[in-house]
Amino acid sequence: MINGRKIYNLAKRIFPFNRSLTGQGNVLTLYELKKVFKNLKIKKIESNSKAFDWKVPLEWDVKKAKLIKINGDVVIDFKKNNLHLVSYSQPVNKIISLKKLKKHLFYEKKLPNAIPYRTSYYHKNWGFCLSYNQFKKLKEKKYKVEIQSSFKKGFMHYGEVLIKGKTKKEVLLSTNICHPSLANNELSGPTVLIYIAKFLKQLKKRKFSYRIVFLPETIGSIAYLKKNYKKIKKNFFAGFNCVCLGDEKNFSFLPSKNGNSNSDFFAKESVSYFKNNFKKYTWLDRGSDERQYCSPGIDLDVASVMKSKYGEYKEYHTSLDNLGKVVTKKGLDQGYNLVKRVLTLIENDFYPKSKSVCEPFMSKKNIYPKTGAKIRPIHIIQYMNLISYADGLMPLSKIAKINKMSFKKCLEIFKFLEKKSLITFEYK
Q1: Whether the Cβ atoms of residue 25 and residue 78 lie closer than 8 Å to each other
Q2: Which of 183, 299, 223 is nearest to 56 (CA)?
Q3: Which of 63, 166, 326, 346 keeps 20 to 30 A from 71, CA to CA?
Q4: How many domains does the chain have?
């Protein structure tokens, strides 16, 4: 049985890895995911490969990074928390004044005990991140900086799962593997989705095919699309960016640029199923890989499903985004069931078809009142409205949207009408 406890235990194993756009931390992460689902394919793209307007960066790894007092006392040690080092920091070995050092130090005054997360992917630089309380304790005039990092022409690694269904129509699920020691953003996404892969594989029947990708954010999705977008676009049915799925706060939904796609409908239906007062964002609030999938020329209608949205919770991109307090077994269980709900709705979508030519005589089925009245009961109106769209050409999801009904309510009515032998269910 898949549950939050299993997902949490996987997250614990991956949490210490130094994950970035490239490097061994990502490779180790992917192999841990592969232990859960052996059909995960680990793939790679060469450094300096062109990806539309972008270029895959050099492979970056870190052996050691310390900030040391002149007397030898260690102030900051990367091995204690890999958030201490600005991601993609250049190698450094020198003694530096506190005045100059401060230009390379990053902290959050509003969260004085938190270590912030900072990157310098596309600009040569180096730096340390520390809590504001740590920063205030820096008094010595000079410090020794030791950063043993390496850049080489290597690879950017990513993971991909393709689970085939009855049709070639695909549902795309995407998440990120590039944030070090950050639990909700983003360790919850990959750990939830690898168990979603297990769930999908265990289904006896699958109408749709499912493509699940585990990518470094932004450059990962861009490079992946460069290689695959024509193939994906050909069979695309719906897509979901699955991030920040591990906390116990509200459910969130960010629509695709289209705003009225299959992805938007199923995402909205799913978050509302768990909590009616879910947080709905707009396309203008985007900030993750939905940007790439919906970008001009790509135009894949990918929506985002989340618990707390990235950037909207106070622990975001700091060491406070941890396992135990922010990401919990219960939260991961909720995140898993959210994504599972999305896919269950998609699999259960069908094409209702009336068994009658012309409008059916509903009184014969004891549905329509035998005595006419000025105003028909609302449920009778709903029955007649839904039957009018039951031409075998329109899916339940679209009929629900037109009638401004929930998927759940629409499904209940069609099941009732099927029992009355008024319609049949067709699956395409």
Answers
A1: no
A2: 223
A3: 63
A4: 3
